[in-house]
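Shipment paperwork, digital attachment
Item: protein structure file
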Amino acid sequence: MNFKNKIAVVTGGAKGIGKTIADEFQKSGASVCLIDKLPNDYFQGDIAEEQVLSAFANKVISEYGRINYLINNALPITKGINECTFDEFNYALQVGVTAPFYLAKLFQPYFTHGASIINISSSRNRMSQPQTESYTAAKGGISALTHAMAVSLAGKVRVNSM
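Attachment content:
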């Protein structure tokens, strides 16, 4: 596929699945804007923080003025009921649900017609393992958010999860 002149935003893009997604977009000609807590070539920051999301979105918009693809890939923490604190559980939801929502909100006026949001979910949203409540809740949340955003953004932005 040819993604020349397309702008792809990838969260959690410094390693793993996110890095592979970012690399494939780049190989196909897209300009890739990634954000990760780990060092990378575009933007380093914690997407659980509102001011980080705002600064990242401002950078992307000031440099490109539009968005074609938003890939919400950043991984929430995986801790279970025996060890997960209140703050850790909320952090998992911030990374896994709040940040994807807020990035879509920040980028909404800048999505090109036919743009696409892809939310990386997991079968854990319906088939849990012991001691994974924080991750499972975040993945269940992103699945529900995907459906709601698909309805709200219908006709302008396709919203899917995988």
